[in-house]
Amino acid sequence: MEKSTQPEVVSSVLKVFNILSALAGQKEVGVSELSQRLMMSKATTYRFLQTMKTLGFVEQEGEADKYALTLKLFELGSKALEHVDLIDLANHEMAEICKVINETVHLGAIDEESIIYLHKLDSSYHLRMHSRVGRRNPLYSTAIGKVLMSHMSEADVRALLAPIEFKRHTEKTHETVEQLLDELNVVKQQHYGEDNEEQEPGLRCIAVPVYDRFGHAIAAISVSFPTIRFDEERKLEYIALLHKAGRNVSEHLGYHNYPA
After folding, report:
1. Which residues have C-beta within 8 Å of that of residue 191, sequence separation ≥ 6?
2. Which range among 132-141, 163-172, 204-213 has the greatest average pLDDT?
3. At what angle do helices 31-38 and 2-24 cross, to 10 degrees?
4. What share of the chain has pLDDT > 90, as a percent?
5. pLDDT in tens, 44-57
6. How confident is the model at residue 158 (pLDDT cuts 50, 70, 90)?
7. Of 186, 248, 198, 197, whose CA–CA distance to 221 is shortest?
8. Which domains are assigned to the chain?
9. What local confidence, expressed as pLDDT, does residue 127 receive?
10. How far apart, in whole angstroms, are the C-alpha atoms of residue 105 and residue 98?
11. How does residue 2 score in pLDDT terms, banded at 50, 70 and 90?
């Protein structure tokens, strides 16, 4: 008995998702138009729509022959995203970067007036960046800080950095907000940030953003190199690896328009 009913059940599931996909493509649609588009009989289409209406996934515009999606699918998707763990998602992508180039990879975010490292995978080299999860570093001299601030307005950047004293960690460290803002414009256009020995002498870092489902840059993934191991000819490869990781994590968080 189970074998004979299974194809019918599968067919019904496919019809439901086809209807949902069609309704998602426009604000509202009539039964006749929908049945023609999906090559289903009008009676079958109507029956499915009424069932989906009863379940709350579809609404009918008054007594008109027009149907539209409700926000119930969004509600279900939002509940699923509540259980998504950013660090777990990023860990896999960070491991892929580490596997290819064997350098230290960080996941960081802005917290108050600094960046904070949320997760870290170490290089196997003895000479590597010394850091730890929970450590804080300045916004203005780190790749993570720059790439996240590049998504903010100038006014917000100035307000964020107003209480901060710009300290010259190296001769390359920015000394003023104006200097930093000039670079942030470049960072925004190129979609990655760099720390070229601005935080520590002999250390370079590249970072790209991670977006939530609303398109907000909530974190960044970075890779750090001792300058003696940084290969300028492979820079585009490093950036591509980071962008792939940032895109994959962002998509798992519900954002599908990663700009790079």
Report:
1. 208, 209, 243, 259, 260
2. 204-213
3. 120
4. 40
5. 888 998 888 888 88
6. very high
7. 248
8. 2-79 (1.10.10.10), 84-252 (3.30.450.40)
9. 57
10. 7
11. very low
Tokens 């230290």, residue? 104
Residues composing the chain: 260
The amino acid at 189: Q
Structure tokens at 174: 């920015």
Phi, psi dihedral angles at 117 (to 5 degrees): -80, 120
Query: What percentage of the chain reaches a pLDDT higher than 70?
Result: 89
